[in-house]
Design a protein that fits this description.
The chain is α+β, with helices and mostly antiparallel strands and about 140 residues long. It has helices spanning about 15-25, 40-50, 130-135; strands at about 10, 55-70, 75-85, 95-110, 110-125.
C-alpha cells in the first residue's frame, strides 16, 4: 500500500497515540474488530480528520480493523452520520437527505494517515405537514 504524504496528519503531541496503542495492547479481546472503542479515542480521531463544514453531524463512531503490534500500527475507520433538510421555495414537499462519511486511517506510534473517504446518501421525500392537516379537516 502506498501512503501519500499529503494525507499525513502532523501530530504535535504524541501522548494520545501512545495512550491508544497502550489501551489496545491491554485489551483481552482476541480480535481487534470486536473492541468497543471508548469515547476519548473516537473524539481524538474525530478531531484529527478533515470533515466538510456544511452538514450537521449526528453521531460519530470509530472502528479498528487491524492491529499489527510487531509493526506498531493500527488501521481502522471512522464514520460520521448527518441529516440535511432541503425545501425549495414555493414547494410543499421537503427532502431529507441522510448520509454518512466514512474515512479510513492508519496510525503509527508517531503519526496518523487519513486515507480514502466514502460517502453514502439516501433521500426521503416528506410532504408538507400543513397539506396533511388540511386534508384531515
Amino acid at each position: 500500500m502506498k501512503i501519500k504524504k499529503m494525507n499525513m496528519v502532523s501530530v504535535k503531541n504524541l501522548d494520545p497515540l501512545y495512550k491508544i496503542f497502550d489501551w489496545v495492547k491491554k485489551q483481552k479481546t482476541p480480535s481487534i474488530e470486536d473492541l468497543k472503542i471508548p469515547n476519548w479515542i473516537t473524539g481524538w480521531l474525530d478531531s484529527q480528520m478533515n470533515w466538510p463544514a456544511k452538514p450537521q453531524f449526528e453521531k460519530t463512531v470509530a472502528y479498528f480493523t487491524e492491529n499489527i503490534s510487531t509493526r506498531n500500527y493500527i488501521s481502522g475507520y471512522i464514520v460520521k452520520q448527518f441529516v440535511l433538510f432541503h425545501r425549495a421555495p414555493g414547494v410543499c414537499t421537503a427532502k431529507i437527505i441522510i448520509g454518512t462519511f466514512k474515512k479510513d486511517f492508519i496510525m503509527f506510534r508517531n503519526r496518523l494517515h487519513r486515507l480514502n473517504v466514502q460517502i453514502s446518501l439516501s433521500t426521503v421525500k416528506m410532504p408538507c405537514a400543513q397539506k396533511e392537516l388540511n386534508a384531515l379537516l
